[in-house]
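Why show two proteins at once? Because comparison is the fastest way to build intuition. When a single record is shown, students tend to memorize it. When two are placed side by side, the eye starts asking what differs. So, the first record is below.
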Amino acid sequence: MIGLIAKRFLQLILLLFGISFLVFMSMHLAPGDPATIIGGPTATESDLAAIRAELGLNDPVLLQYFDYIRGVVQGDLGYSFQNNQSVSEAIATRFPQTLNLAIASMVVAVLIGVPAGIISAIKQNSWFDVSSTTIALAGISIPNFWLGAMLILIFAVELQWLPVGGLSAPFWTIEGMKQLILPSITLGTASAAMIARMSRSAMLEVIRADYIRTARAKGVKRNAVVWIHALRNAMIPVITVIGLNFGFLLGGTIITEQVFAINGVGRLMIDAIAARDFPIVQGTVLLVATLFVVVNLLVDIIYAFVDPRISYD
């Protein structure tokens, strides 16, 4: 296990170097001039030249990249071009809202997806199985921005049961929970559909195994066979899907944050891309990449606790 963790951390470092290089070069090769955006329409050529010199934009691109990496290694992600705010501070301010939204969405996805998949497998080809499969397909197909807009229209505008958007209240309060309901359903629907399909497939494969038939032949009760013997062995692929989806949720909240006016990392990234704010874009992308790899490492570690037969030696 220690060897696995060390190997993954090495892979993480190499991956972050590669991602940082691609993002850095992409931002610098994209059309547009950050100095023009910062200076505004009234800036003169001398003003623009002073801005470029101050930001180091006149240096060769590779030199700018190495200067950036040197700062990252020292824990300095740079400063925003727009307001000279520390990138680390900007991300730290926005990240809690993105994390709360991702966790709430994952809870919704697991609570809906896992039971629906298991029941569908147990009642294969029943009306419940057909209905859940159809709903899962619809959940994967429906765009987040459309679903979010419909939920706002129905539950916030027409019925006025829930707030329109924002996450201003702490998530542990009643108001904070209300603010999380619509965006978490919007973001968690597609994940719930994927988890349901995987849970169904994994459970169908397990309940057809020889040891399940043996347990039934011995007279073990049906519920015990399903929830004790079959479920644990079917959870490995389900855990994989949950881990991957949680990693995607941490970096895929952009559309949902825009729809519900949530000031999270995704919205920060979109605003930074529009303003050609290189340090903010690079910092947010590095954060998302790091979280994705760390989540996948945690999933590998959880495997060993779910199924003792798995060894990393």
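Second record. Ask yourself what differs from the first in the token line.
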Amino acid sequence: MMSTQAITLRAAGRTMPTGLVAKVATVAAALALWQLLSATRVLDPDTIPAPTSIAVAAARLAGEVPFWHAFGLTLTGWSLGLLLSAAIAIPAGLLLGSSDICYRSCRFTIDFLRTIPPVAMVPLALLLYGATTQMKLVLIVLGSVWPLLLQTMYGVRQIDPMSRETARSYRLDRLRRTLFIVLPGASPFVATGVRISATMALLLTIGAELIGSAEGLGNGIGLAQSASDVPRLFALIAFSALLGVAVNAFFVTVERRALAWHVAHRPSPGR
């Protein structure tokens, strides 16, 4: 007689591949439909090339050293911008979220500044730094610092008041309260903010390269557009999209493993 636990494990093992197969089948069906529309010329191949043409261009790109150099520059700008944003947003969010006076006095300023589109700052950044990595970093930080700052502030303010009172009753100093009460309580919000900021930082990196002509994948997209090389253009866009998916999947995995102790990431009893 097979135990209930064994049946559950086998069912879980069958369910996981099924979800993966469904995702792959959906993508394959979409690509097949796209190829069919291109073959029947419902879609103009000079404007929207067929997936096979994009695949050939992507394979050609993967064999070029300049492409990987541009890919590395994009990753470098993204990672440095995200690190700078985190270094600014997390400490500031902890400070502003812990003080009612600071929170109320700075909230309007934060709401005002975060509504300024980073793209609108491109002319100023180009004037100050030119088409350099510094220009990219300025635009990345201006756009990606706000989600992480707000999430950190909200996380601190959502901490259970009973935990704060317990820490005060035990006369814990500010450093210990921060390490053992504030940071663990706000960590799910901070992790969500990092994930959102990481995606936004990548978008701003490629956008800064495209608009500001700094070296990277975005600049390659602009050059392909200028040369009317549509398959190469779509191949670069596809690589950028895959990079975005990989970045999001990486941070989701890190968040689940780092916060496995938190109730939000524990499996429900019914699963």
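One difference worth noting in the second protein: DSSP finds ten helices and no strands in the chain.
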